[in-house]
Amino acid sequence: MSESQIIALSATEAAAAVIAGELDERELYGVYHRRAREHGGSDALNCFTWVSELSEPGGAPQRPLGGVPLAVKDLFCTKDVPSQSGSKILEGYRPPYTATAVSKLQQAGATMLAKTNQDEFAMGSSNESSAFGPVRNPWDRGRVPGGSSGGSAAAVAAGLAPWALGTDTGGSIRQPAALCGIVGLKPTYGAVSRYGMIAFASSLDQAGPLTRNVADAALMLRHMVGQDEADATSLAFPEPISVPDGVRLDGVRLGVATQLSAESEGAGGIEPGVAAAFEATLKLAQELGASIKTIELPHAPHALAAYYVLAPAECSSNLARFDGVRYGLRAEPGGEDGERGLLGMYTRTRHDGFGAEVKRRIMLGTYALSAGYYDAYYGRAQRVRTKIAEDFKTAFQDVDFIVTPTSATVAFELGALTDDPWAMYMNDYFTVPMSLAGIPAISIPCGLAGDGLGPGGNGLPVGFQIAGPAFSENRVMQAAHALEAAIGFDSAAAFA
């Protein structure tokens, strides 16, 4: 096969071709290895922080994933391979073990191709907070790819990796998937082991796939789910993950929440083109047999505020381990006014090692957990989280899925929001409620928006989000597959 023919294959098609003997695994790996080195570095998309030095794969052509190359977010520990979480404080760190999600995919036959750039410790919505520089959106290199899994999303959208592993705490898979025009799935909390994921917010973090289509997401997820002794929060998935084949939505009830609709006031300025693409997709869903019902999620407007208390509180505890003593950066104490001794080393290491956004969230979280403020902030945010979960449970008694735009905007320009943290946080308005409730949600591309933007001036990608009850991934992906087929979105415009 030619390079263009190989790149045109989905991951599912490539795995099938290798297993059938129609495509040589080494040829498949070689194409992506060359492309990753040519287009993924800091002088291009900057979506990779490490690319394998191997020119050939380890060899797993008869396993279910056929040796298909895999890009892995730098948040995952990978044995003897740099695992830096986008942070200077972990620069060059090579763990002695591999994260469960990665090892399960490797055991199924995936071959690790590269580690992907990300927002530092997954804290960001634009991939501009990385210590290794911002990732560029392959649709328009002057724009962000979304975050925090922006490197994974950009790599898949640009055809530099067939699929990639990301993490989602408040939207970090779904939002970059939307901005890069690919598919991103956040599974039910606990469906995938968090062992070996460098923690941001432990009660929210979840690993998931970023792929070109829904079938690829299902195939990847099939080999990720399951209970893990090393992660007490992991759960046995109640049914096998199936690759979707549905093309109709007959009888499916889609809920559009007043508080999370394209017209919702809390979205903070949803772009007209995004709203139009969302409404057009709703109409298409009806043509496929779905019914649309307006529902209420009364506490959803408070989700963002609750999230930005809870997630920083957990991050302030999780990141306390990075002190310069056990691993990672160790800065020497000193300076004219600096502390001396052990305290000085702690202070200087964390000052030099953490970026501005991480420091901001550590301080917010520490304040929320401090004496006299715990009940007013953290305790209240937890009660809001409970109410949000209850709202979703009530809504799912009347509808099968809840749908929203994934992001209120298309990809924005690099640097546009870096000086306005609240505007940056608003990018998670439509994704955070599902994270707080712990339910699965998928983003699929549903069209283009923005006159004069993107390749040929036809616009930039818009994401359509579908959320379902806990452990409803199979049904969510069936619905997403049917819509995906009817939409017929072509992501080839982003290929490098």
Description:
The chain has helices at residues 3-8, 11-19, 25-39, 100-107, 150-157, 174-180, 214-222, 272-287, 303-318, 341-353, 356-369, 375-395, 421-425, 432-437, 473-487, and strands spanning 48-51, 69-73, 111-116, 163-168, 183-186, 206-211, 253-257, 291-295, 401-405, 441-449, 460-467. With 496 residues, it is an alpha/beta fold. Among the domains are: 3-244 and 476-494, Amidase signature (AS) domain (Amidase signature (AS) enzymes); 301-381, no CATH class. The protein is globular, with a radius of gyration of 21 Å. It starts with a helix and ends in a 9-residue tail after the last helix.
The CATH class of the domain at 3-244 and 476-494, by name, is Alpha Beta
Summed over residues and divided by their number, the pLDDT gives a mean of 94
The class by helix and strand makeup works out as alpha/beta
- The strands making up the biggest β-sheet line up spatially as 1-3-2-4-6-5-10-11-9-7-8
CATH structural architecture of the domain at 3-244 and 476-494: Alpha-Beta Complex
**Strand element count:** 11
The N- to C-terminal Cα distance equals 19 Å
Range of strand content:
5-15%
Instruction: Tell me roughly what share of residues is in helical segments.
Output: 25-40%
Element pattern in H and E: HHHEEHEHEHEEHEHEHHHHEHHEEH
Biggest sheet descriptor: 11 strands, mixed
Unreliable residue runs:
none
What's the CATH topology label of the domain at 3-244 and 476-494? Amidase signature (AS) enzymes
Nearest-angstrom radius of gyration?
21 Å
Overall geometric form? globular
Number of helices: 15
- Find the CATH superfamily of the domain at 3-244 and 476-494: Amidase signature (AS) domain
